[in-house]
Amino acid sequence: MRAVQFDQIGGPEVLKVVEAPRPTAGPGQVVVRNRWAGINFIDTYFRSGVYGSSLPGTLGQEASGEVAEVGEGVEGLKVGDAVAYLGNQDTYAQYSVTKASRVVKIDTSKMALETAAAMLLQGLTAHTLVTRSYAVKPGDWVLVQAGAGGTGRLLVQLCKYLGAQVIATTSTEEKAEVARRAGANYIINYAKESVSEAVHRIVPEGVHVVYDGVGKSTYAGSIAALRREGTMVSFGNASGTVPPVNIFDLSSKNLLLLRPRLYGYLVTDEEYQRHLGELVDLVQQGKLDIQVFKIYAMEDAAQAHMDLQARMTTGKLLLSIP
Questions:
Q1: How far apart are CA 56 and CA 48, in angstroms?
Q2: Residue 127: phi, psi to the nearest 5?
Q3: 188-224 pLDDT, tens per residue?
Q4: Is the pLDDT of residue 170 over 80?
Q5: Which of 101, 126, 175 lies closest to 290 in space, CA to CA?
C-alpha cells in the first residue's frame, strides 16, 4: 500500500510517499480502506520531534473510508461499511487497522465521508474541552485564542451553543470574519493590541475560562485575561511549548490551570462513544459547522504541513487518499 512516512525527524521536507506493508485485522479489530485523512497540528509535533515517534514513522490521527477486513469477534461491522475513526499515527495511508470499538458508522446520506474525517480530532477535542476541562455554562465569558483555526472555530461555535459570551483572537481581518461567522461576540487582533488589556476593556473582571491552543506566545496574556477563580485550559503548542510555570503565579487570583490531552478523556469505550455520538448529532443537526479549508494529495503532505505551521489556514485540512 502507499503511505506518507518519514525516516528522520525534521521539517516538512522529510515526508515522503512510500510503499509499506498493508496491515491485517486481529481479534476485535478492523482494517479500514482510508479515503480521507485529517491533517492536524499534532502531526507536526511527531514529525519534528516535539513528541516521540519511532522511525520510520507514519502520521495521522483520524480518517474515514470503508471497512476492508473484519477481525475475529467483531460484531456490527462488515466489509464495505462507511466508517470514521481516530487512528494512532497511521492514517496517512491507504489502509489502517484499528479497534472495532473505536469505529463509528457513517450514514453517507446524512454526512459526507470528507466531513466525517474532518470532524473527529478537532471536534472531539473541542467537545471534551467545553464539557470536561471546563463545563461552559450560559452567561460565561470565554476567551478562545486563535478563534479562526480548526479547533478554535469549533470552540467558538460550541461555546455559543452552550450560551456563553465569546471573545476570539485572530491575526488578520480575514480570520476575524471567520470567527465572527462562527459566532464570536468580540474579536481581538492579537497582532495589533494586547489581548489581556482588550479583554479587560470588554469585561473588566476578566473571563471565566481561556481555551489556548497556541502555547508559548499567548500563555502570559491568557493568564492575565482571567478573572478571580478563572480557569486556564492550555491544550496546544502551535507557537512552541509553554515554558516551566511558577505555580505561585496562579495564587493571586486563585486560578486553575489545566493541560489536558484528548485521549485522557477517551480512555474507555463508553467515554469515546458518548463524546463521538454527541459530536455526530451536533454536526448532523447543523449545530456545528465543519469547514474543510483545503484538500491535499498524498504527494503534497509536506506542503500541507508548511501551510498549517505558517497559520495560513482557517479550517480543516484533509489528505485525499486514492
A1: 13
A2: -65, -45
A3: 999 999 999 999 999 999 999 999 999 999 999 999 9
A4: yes
A5: 126
